[in-house]
Amino acid sequence: MPLTSGLFYDNYWNADDILFQCWASFTENENIESDTPWHVLCAYTRPEDVHWNKNLDIRFYSTLEKQANEGHQLNDKDLSTAQQFLRQWSNGFLDAYKEVLPSKFTYLFGSLHSALAPAVHRAFNAPTSASSQPWLKYLIQRDTLCSVPPTVPPNLQLDTIFKQHFDVILSSSPIPRTKQYLQTRISASTALYERSTRDSPPIAFCVTAPDRSLSMLWVDPCYRQRGLAIWIAENRLLGTNGMTSRELENAHPQGGAKEEISASLKAAGAQLMWSHADVDVKNTGSRKVCERLGGVRGWTVVWIRVEIEV
Q1: Of 122, 123, 64, nearest to 90 (Cα)?
Q2: CA gap 85, 79 in Å, rounded
């Protein structure tokens, strides 16, 4: 199986000269839309930063996801192919960066299609307990949103998140994140403030992740039931680094998109823009927000932590 690596741009690290690493199981000149299964793995954490993060944040995309969404039951051969790719990538990664990686850290496979979870478990002999509970994937297309970002609500100020509020922002969610990570997402954030000064934390904020998903959305309890969650999420998606476009999609393939999205991507001259969100099945509030944004429920995903010793 060919295994090539390339650098795809994303301002994850808030600097134009920094890229994130991408490994793919096809060559540059190979048609990735052929019948041959392909896999793309993107490492969102720079190897030298695993020391403070202790996690290597990974997204794994595959044509097998699309097959699963279309009703195909993945068999042992399908999963073995993905398993082989993951082992081959891991061996190459550990060998290439052994001088900068800590002795112990974690592979964090995020937003992984549930059908591919067994391939990860087998590749790294990880117990099933390493997987999170299934989350629902919602797909949001640009044409379901307003034509322009909505007007700022009266008496509120629109801005980004700020370093001085990182403690408050981190405490708003049980999902473990770090101040270093928030630093990388300032340019991909939208926040509402009560006054022009920034001495008080925002009353609402929304952050998009490197893959353009809605990763953080919060409204102060005192300001809920006013539609601010919908407002700020829509404003964020229509802002800088809010949604992914067809051009980025071609450079950063994501298997398993719903049938309508796949068809749109193939349409000549199509300029599709879309985002997505992973939502806890029990989180009815977030599910309603996604649905109000025109989000369509797709498949289920899991997050898998694999402990690594170098």
Answers
A1: 123
A2: 10
Residue 9's domain comprises 4-136+301-309
CA dihedral 95, 209, 257, 9 (to 10 degrees): -60
pLDDT tens for each residue of 207-253: 998 778 999 999 999 999 999 999 999 999 998 888 877 443 443 33
List, in sequence order, every residue forming a beta bridge with 214; answer none if it has no partner: 208
Q: Give me the residue label for tokens 């061996």.
A: 91
| Total-model pTM | 0.79
Residues 206 and 250 in one domain: yes
**83 lies in the same domain as 220:** no
Contact 60, 112 (CB under 8 A): yes
- How far apart CA 280 and CA 287 sit, in angstroms, is 8
- Note the pLDDT tens digit of each residue in 4-18: 555 444 444 444 444
Is residue 232 located within the same domain as residue 200? yes
Are residue 155 and residue 240 in the same domain, yes or no? Answer: yes
